Amino acid sequence: MPDRAPALPALAIEPHPARVSDADRADRIADPGFGRIFTDHMASAVWNTEQGWHDARITPRVPLQIDPATSVLHYAQEIFEGMKAYRTADGAMALFRPQENARRFNASARRMAMPEIPEALFLEAVRQVVATDADWFPGVPGGALYIRPFMFSSDVRLGVRPASEYRFLVIVSPVGNYFRGDPTAIKLWVSRNYVRAAPGGTGEAKCGGNYAGSLVAQAEAIERGCDQVVYLDAIERKWVEELGGMNLFFVMDDGTLVTPPLGGTILPGITRDSLITIARDEGLTVREERYGIDQWRADAASGRLVESFACGTAAVVTPVGEVRDGDSVFTIGSGGPGQLTQRLRQRLVDIQYGRAPDRHNWVESIG
Ligand SMILES: *Cc1c(COP(=O)(O)O)cnc(C)c1O
Questions:
Q1: Per DSSP, which regions of the chain are E strands?
Q2: Is 209's pLDDT higher than 80?
Q3: pLDDT above 70 (res 5)
Q4: Residue 94's pLDDT is what?
Q5: Is residue 145's pLDDT more than 90?
Q6: How many whole angstroms from 268 Cα to the centroid of ligand 1?
Q7: How do residues 148-205 score in pLDDT, each as one tens digit?
Q8: Residues 305-332, buried b or exposed e (16+ Cβ, 10 A)?
């Protein structure tokens, strides 16, 4: 186990007076889907200029009451994280690299002119809400508790400036597979009308606004029979960056992996980083270098490129089968899951579910 950040005193706990019944809960988690159902409790804390962070507690998950002039509703000063709790082979609950989520949350906070939260508070809130609602763990294949820490400006004021009050919350959603029907490979739509991020923008922050801006492109993708959007860089409209919520990898016929380099416009995925490490542990070469859309098409046609996959906490490792760019389409490999993609996915989930040695101390037990 990695050294844990110094534990805080336990958060104040207000247990739910009327938890969902065992039968009802069993019913809801039998086919959870993704992000549709939620557990009984949440964690919360408040920051203001006078007191800093305070009032950290675990409470029943209830609707928030907010004033119509609350600034987040107008100016979208909001950041979030996405992480999962797994049930390991020995029956314990475990988090995967949670400290990385805490660090990235604070990096997002800095970019959005929001206060940083002590890593220990972030981690303790996550651990305690998961421990409180552990009986919501779905037993379905690929099941996990998806954890959503987030923070927003809660000032009641329409002036545009950093707020003097923020709220931090952690909610938990029992989930199965991200893509309904667990497709063997997804189809991507190359966005030529929209970009996700530009240099100097907010692309490397996990902020809600990035997602708001991506929905129209996602609708275009669905209209064209695709599952997800692949974005190109904003300047040359040439370099492949990532999907709306997942990073991308390319597998060459000599077994090397290529993934676009981080550089301000790409979200630094923890899954991306973990897969780079796992691949290098296996002796594979991983190059973080720019890869053009025209090269991708040419390499897929010539056979130099044999596989492509997307990755992230929500979707784990998802093979890319087809890429549609305007009226042209190209197929990746056989159009189904590639061998190396499958192997890396298996290596990753075996570590997450405690079935394989945890060489890098990535797994932290809760309980
Ligand atoms: C969250 C996210 C990812 C994946 O990050 P993980 O840490 O692997 O879950 C990739 N791209 C975008 C745009 C994201 O928001």
A1: 12-13, 41-48, 52-60, 78-80, 83-87, 93-96, 144-153, 165-175, 186-190, 228-232, 240-243, 247-252, 257-259, 286-288, 305-312, 316-325, 328-331, 363-366
A2: yes
A3: no
A4: 96
A5: yes
A6: 7
A7: 999 999 999 998 888 899 999 999 999 998 876 656 899 999 999 999 999 999 999 9
A8: bbbbbbbbbbbbbbbbbbbbbeeeeeeb
Does the structure show a pLDDT above 70 at 329? Answer: yes
pLDDT in tens, 223-243: 999 999 999 999 999 999 999
**247 within ligand 1 shell (Cβ under 6 A):** yes
Nearest atom, ligand 1, residue 247 CA: 10
Q: Ligand 1 pocket, 81 CB below 6 A?
A: no
Q: What is the torsion angle, in degrees rounded to the nearest 10, for the CA atoms of residue 339, residue 340, residue 344 and residue 349? A: -10
Q: How far is the CA of 334 from the centre of ligand 1 (A)?
A: 27
Q: Which domains does the chain have, with CATH numbers?
A: 12-177 (3.30.470.10), 186-352 (3.20.10.10)
pLDDT of amino acid 1: 41
- pLDDT tier at 323 (50, 70, 90 boundaries)? very high
Burial of 212 (0-12, 13-18, 19+ CB in 10 A): exposed
Looking from the CA of residue 196, the nearest atom of ligand 1 is: 13
Q: Is the CB of 98 under 6 A from ligand 1?
A: no
Q: Which of 83, 101, 146, 267 is the best mutation target for the ligand 1 pocket, counting ligand atoms within 8 Å of the beta carbon and taking the most?
A: 267
Contacts with 238 (C-beta within 8 Å, 6 or more apart), sequence order: 232, 292, 293, 294
Q: Region 14-31: what's the mean pLDDT?
A: 95
At residue 20, the 3 state secondary structure works out as coil
312 close to ligand 1 (CB < 6 Angstrom)? yes
What is the reported pLDDT for 182?
59
- Average model confidence (pLDDT) for the chain? 94
For residues 278 and 262, what is the distance between their CA atoms, to the nearest angstrom?
Answer: 18
